Amino acid sequence: MQQEDIAIIGGGPAGLMAAEVLSGAGWAVTVYEAMPTVARKFLLAGKSGLNITHSEPYARFANRFGAASERLRPALDAFSPDDMRAWASGLGIETFVGSSGRVFPTAMKASPLLRAWLRRLEAQGAKVRTRHRWIGFADDGLVFATPDGPTTIRSNATLLALGGASWPRLGSDASWVDPLSERGVSVAPLRPANCGFDVDWSDFFISRFAGLPIKSVTATSDAGTFPGEFVISRDGIEGSLVYAHAASLRDRLERDGGAVLTLDLSPGRRADRLARELARQGDKSSFANRLRKGAGLEGVKAALLRELTPDLAQHSPDDLARLIKALPLPVLRPRPIAEAISSAGGIHWSDMDTGYMLKALPGVFVAGEMLDWEAPTGGYLLTACMATGRAAARGIDSWLSRPQSSNS
Ligand SMILES: Cc1cc2nc3c(=O)[nH]c(=O)nc-3n(C[C@H](O)[C@H](O)[C@H](O)COP(=O)(O)OP(=O)(O)OC[C@H]3O[C@@H](n4cnc5c(N)ncnc54)[C@H](O)[C@@H]3O)c2cc1C
Predict the structure, then answer these.
(1) Which tens digits make up the pLDDT trace of 360-384?
(2) pLDDT for residue 1 is more than 70
(3) Whether the CB of 373 sits within 6 Å of ligand 1
(4) pLDDT number for residue 408
(5) What atom of ligand 1 comes closest to residue 172's alpha carbon?
């Protein structure tokens, strides 16, 4: 059996950040990664610009993590959005604040950042072993499936940074749930987060409008009212405005069996004005023209109103105006977790100590999306993954540096 100082399993942002901190502190670190290359999801995030963090006031930022905000706070305090930007800058990657307050690298992609990061890790002596899929524990060792067959490695400390359950083809398939559960670690069920939803569209509507964006609307759910846009998909709805409501729609579906996103298709106009304008169109012009001239609705927006409202043309101007301002869009279920941006659920906070060590498995630490927290899109996910990677690294450093008499 091979002996390693520190085994970090999972070469995503959380694992690589822990490797940076620990190798920088002089520890011998090996990152084990199941896939042929590391950080595939991080690279995919780069395809949409790599939103690495958010520039909103820190107190608001730190509260974006729902029930886990308090538990995450020390890790975020030690690696704040400003620290994230300084860290990227230290790797030669400058960032900018977009109009929404989101922060991106100026190159709007992940590969230059990842290349610089891996160079730093190499310079610090951290090793990376790809095609090593961790499959569980055996006695005191970590068992990996490799192209050369199974191998067992013993480490003085281990970090599991294996990601959540979304996009499993990029490597994070949540196969860690069983080996950890068998060792007494409790895991909140993994659920889709920042995901689309199925809607019962008619064949006609899909054939004409799938793929088109609904722009300049507001949407309301238990999460609040937000402006933005979303996309009509073949199965339902997706896109940033839907993701902002995803957690509350998902939770309501679980609780009540049904959930509704309420749309304002004309946020710039009040209902009474809309009603007046619609009434002014008279009965002579076609219904489509009345909608276009009276309410500015045409194309996919008008089609959505028709799709969701039987006998729309029979409604009075007042009723029509009310519908345009508060159109109920019932959703059936979240899209499968494999399609989601991230997953909610994961290892319960009560099963970890403040240094991110599993209480049931002394010497085994955890970080990143595999912990029980969730956040909206906006750079919160990467910031928290890296912040917990750093916090777990500090936990490992303290654990390995503790007086030998307390080693048992
Ligand atoms: C399309 C898309 C766009 C995104 N865009 C953004 C964005 O712009 N901003 C943002 O903040 N977040 C974004 N995210 C989310 C973000 O990428 C993730 O939250 C983050 O990558 C999670 O980091 P992690 O290190 O915890 O896990 P991961 O990145 O999932 O890394 C875990 C690693 O562990 C490896 N692994 C898993 N199981 C094993 C095993 N058994 N043995 C060995 N290795 C294993 C995996 O192959 C993987 O490399 C996006 C996600 C997606 C899918």
Answers:
(1) 999 999 999 999 999 999 999 999 9
(2) no
(3) no
(4) 42
(5) 37
Same domain (yes/no): 31, 168: yes
Q: Name the DSSP letter for residue 126.
A: -
Domain with 139, as residue range(s), is 2-193+338-406
How far apart are the CA of 13 and the centre of ligand 1, in A? Answer: 7
Whether 221 lines ligand 1, by a CB cut-off of 6 Å, is no
148 and 208 in a common domain: no
CA nearest ligand 1 atom 24, residue: 163
At 27 the three-state DSSP class reads: coil
Say whether both 147 and 46 belong to one domain: yes
Closest to 297 in 3D by CA, of 319, 314, 274: 274
Task: Judge if 230 and 314 occupy the same domain.
Answer: yes
Measured CA angle at 169 (ends 105, 195), to 5 deg:
65
In angstroms, what is the span from residue 219 Cα to ligand 1's centroid?
28
Has residue 139 got a pLDDT over 90?
Answer: no
Per-residue model confidence as pLDDT tens digits over 54-97: 999 999 999 999 999 999 999 999 999 999 999 999 999 999 99
Report which protein residue has its CA nearest ligand 1's atom 20: 382
Beta carbons within 10 angstroms of residue 225's beta carbon: 12
pTM attached to this predicted model: 0.95
CA of 267 to the centre of ligand 1 (A): 36
CA dist 80 → 46, 72, 141, 349 (Å): 20, 11, 35, 21
CA–CA gap between residue 36 and residue 92 (Å, rounded): 26
Measured in Å, residue 341 CA sits from the centre of ligand 1 at 9
Mean pLDDT of 20-26: 98
Which numbered atom of ligand 1 lies nearest the CA of 132?
43
Same domain membership, residue 147 and residue 86: yes
Same domain, 168 and 203: no
Question: Which residue's CA is the nearest one to ligand 1's atom 53?
Answer: 341
Question: 392 in ligand 1 pocket by Cβ < 6 Å?
Answer: no
Instruction: Kindly state if the Cβ of 172 falls inside 6 Å of ligand 1.
Output: yes
Question: Would the pLDDT of 389 be above 90?
Answer: yes
Residue recorded with tokens 């030690």: 78
| Beta-bridge mates of residue 334 | 197
